[in-house]
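Protein modeling request. Please complete all fields; requests missing the sequence field cannot be processed.
Requester role: graduate student
Desired output: 3D structure, token encoding
Chains: 1
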Amino acid sequence: MLTQLLIILSISLFTQNIDGLIKITEAHQPDGSIDLVAFNSGHCPYTVTLEAELSNVRSRVPLPATFTVFPEAEHQVLTSLIPDKNAKWSYRFKYSYQMGDLKSGKHDEEQLYLLPYEVGISKKFMQGPDGKFSHQGVNAYDFGMLEGSPVHAARDGIVVTVKEDSKNGCPQIECMKDANNILIWHKDGSFASYAHLQYQGSLVSTGDTVKAGDLIGLSGNTGWSSAPHLHFEVYLPQSQGRKTFPVQFLTQQGLLSELAVGREYQATTGGDRR
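Delivered output (274 residues):
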């Protein structure tokens, strides 16, 4: 997601809040400087890029500059502006932001994942990275699941977005936007997407903390889909697009870094999940 905001200033700052996630306000300091302060009301870090045009004003941080704004930080100072008190001054700035920590987020290659369904149950693996139907150039995993089947978290994390309002699905790429999904943020900065859920198929809400193995939703056939299944992928956001990662699954058949299309795998909680 990319959101952009433009503010024109003359002496005072007019603030707006487009989607309720990142808001930048001003804080006047006793020395006459003005702090530009960011507030993140989301449930994961966001990367903010700040640009400005300054007239008789200087910034303590060279601009443009990029910052990571964390949800735990209620007020994070991005920079301080110092006006020239002996001249008429003004400034204008704009900022854009993307979900995730683009500066230091890094997927833990040693992380182990549970299969995203109920322990003791076996599901057929339908498609992996660089699949024949989709997934070209993408590390993603499709598991055959009847509509309404329980979906379980593959790893600990925090729910950051939920979409469950779609009833539409079709085998054409045009339907991709209609996929219901749950997005979970992990402590290393990566995200896991659980997609094609049924209408009103989420059993969690944004801000919920989940543990690996927790029930989070119900599978479906929404979005770009030719048959009911669950799409699972792990990725890091980038300035343009995202980078997906191959993952290691804990299965009843053992720890597997590759799954064979057409074979069934049984979910288990055994072993060290890290």
